[in-house]
Design goal:
494 residues, alpha/beta, Spore Coat Polysaccharide Biosynthesis Protein SpsA, Chain A, 2 domains, 7 strands, membrane
């Protein structure tokens, strides 16, 4: 019986490692694409904005919900957009239920008096959440192109001039820009979030877009062709990541997406771990929901190549990697004891040790994305090493929380769209305390995260009697990661 259970554990352990290895190979391929990418923006057809006949009408949509701390900053920033007023309208899609509504309404009235075409659009209910608000605004939008910004994004005044020009190509349905981070250095938490997002917005978005593979509109800091939204079936609120959903439906209908790495749109990162938790939960559950909704359509599509299908499937499985990582982590300690008890299974562990190459691949891939933004000096490389292992540890610490989100998504359990609280903080001297949108509840997962911290401490201890230190660094990172997440959740301080 013991040997049978051991085989079951090794099988699950091996399968999870294999999926992680495939994911790392996909990332490596994206790195090759990224490094070989020759920017085609110089030769791409563009609107001539000096010719009044070529200036397209643009609608800017600002979907907001209880954003008291950032609304004034948002509207002041959007009012500075440099674009002919006769070809621009702004929709403030305000689903707020608090006092911010009146403050926003007053500021909008002042902007209207300055000659800006800006509308305050309110709904009786939040049906469909963000997707529902965008869809309702689209029904009355005057623009042929729809730019979308979340409440914490601060586009430069010339943002539209740098982006809308690429819609001269009638096959392009979306232009997406890279996110920047106004509070990158606020804390360890913000630095590792910026690190992960930078990898997505360089390696993944460029790597996929360079070869015509599917990418995704990131929910904000991009522009849609209105015709593309309608042709793809419009916004739908049946997943928590409506942006990923519509992106895949549009590309399956042969619309092209254009990603602009050189156009940065600054935004604010969550500074408190409870806010990061809610954001991570929504993104990872939404990813799994979209896997259920779209993966078969991708696999059976006749208008895309095998390689695009492979990257599409791996893209939709991105969030599910947390489940694989959690399984590998959880089973790594029983695997140590199986290895000691059954010497005849040594061959299996020799094979499994090969999968350490997955970590090496990710280390190399993330370095190239890091240096593209931060620089490639020796000091930057040293900083990168420290940041990579800090990021890796904290990502492991989030693996339980994110795995629950992924499982709910795959099982089809519905949940409400929980917005990420905004803070309007830029330096460590700014305080987040008193933010009325912060959840006061402690996550019930904290108890399990504390137990896992102790569990992986036991894993580190087990290396001594078993005389097997191969997994000691891994268990140390797990112990540190779960300890970090538990402590920060307990103190609500990041």
């Amino acid at each position: 019986m013991g040997l049978i259970i051991s085989y079951i554990i090794i099988t699950i352990y091996s399968f999870a490692l294999l999926l992680i290895f495939f994911y790392s190979l996909a990332q490596l391929n994206l790195l090759v694409n990224y490094l070989g990418y020759k920017r085609q923006n110089q030769t791409a057809p563009k609107f001539n904005l000096l010719d009044p006949k070529e200036i397209p009408f643009v609608t800017i949509q600002l979907p907001v919900y209880n954003e008291e701390y950032v609304m004034e900053r948002l509207l002041e920033n959007i009012a500075k957009i440099e674009y002919p007023k006769s070809k621009l309208e702004i929709q403030v899609l305000d689903d707020s239920t608090d006092s911010s509504v009146n403050i926003t309404a007053e500021q909008i009235r002042e902007l209207q008096e300055s000659g800006l075409d800006i509308q305050h659009i309110r709904r009786e209910n939040r049906q469909g959440f963000k997707a529902g608000a965008l869809k309702e605004g689209l029904e009355i939008a005057k623009g042929d192109f729809i730019a979308i910004f979340d409440a914490d994004f601060l586009p430069d005044p010339d943002w539209l001039k740098k982006t809308v020009i690429y819609f001269k190509d009638k096959e392009i349905g979306v232009v997406q820009t890279r996110w920047g981070h106004i509070n990158r250095d606020y804390s360890t938490l913000t630095r590792i979030q910026a690190f992960a997002l930078d990898a997505h917005f360089t390696l993944e978005q460029v790597g996929r877009n360079a070869k015509g593979h599917f990418i995704n509109f990131n929910g904000t800091a991009g522009i849609w062709r209105k015709e593309c939204i309608l042709d793809a079936g419009n916004w739908e609120g049946d997943t928590l990541t409506e942006d990923l959903d519509l992106s895949y439906r549009a590309q399956l209908k042969n619309w092209k997406f254009k990603y602009l790495e050189d156009v940065e749109t600054p935004a604010e990162l969550p500074v408190v771990i409870s806010a990061a938790r809610s954001q991570q939960f929504r993104w990872n559950k939404g990813g799994a929901e979209n896997f259920r909704k779209s993966v078969w359509k991708v696999i059976t599509a006749k208008n895309i190549s095998f390689k695009t299908k492979f990257h599409g499937v791996m893209h939709l499985l991105n969030s599910s990697m947390f489940l694989c990582v959690f399984l590998v982590s959880l089973l790594s300690i029983p695997a140590m004891y199986i290895k000691a008890l059954y010497p005849e299974l040594d061959w299996a562990f020799d094979v499994l040790s090969f999968f350490v190459v997955s970590t090496i691949i990710l280390f190399v891939c993330y370095w190239f994305t890091y240096k593209s933004i931060q620089g490639s000096s020796f000091d930057n490389f040293v900083d990168y090493i420290k940041l990579f292992f800090t990021f890796f540890s904290v990502a492991l610490g989030f693996s339980l929380h994110n795995s629950i989100a992924v499982l709910e998504g795959h099982m089809g359990k519905r949940s409400e769209f929980v917005r990420t609280p905004k803070f309007n903080l830029n330096s460590i001297t700014d305080s987040w305390k008193g933010n009325k949108y912060l959840t006061k509840k402690l996550s019930p997962n904290m108890i399990l995260e504390f137990a896992l911290m102790i569990y992986f401490l036991f894993g580190m201890y087990s290396a001594v009697p078993l005389n097997d230190f191969g997994l000691f660094p891994f268990h140390f990172m797990l112990f540190s990661g779960f300890g970090f997440v538990f402590y920060k959740s307990l103190t609500s301080r990041a």
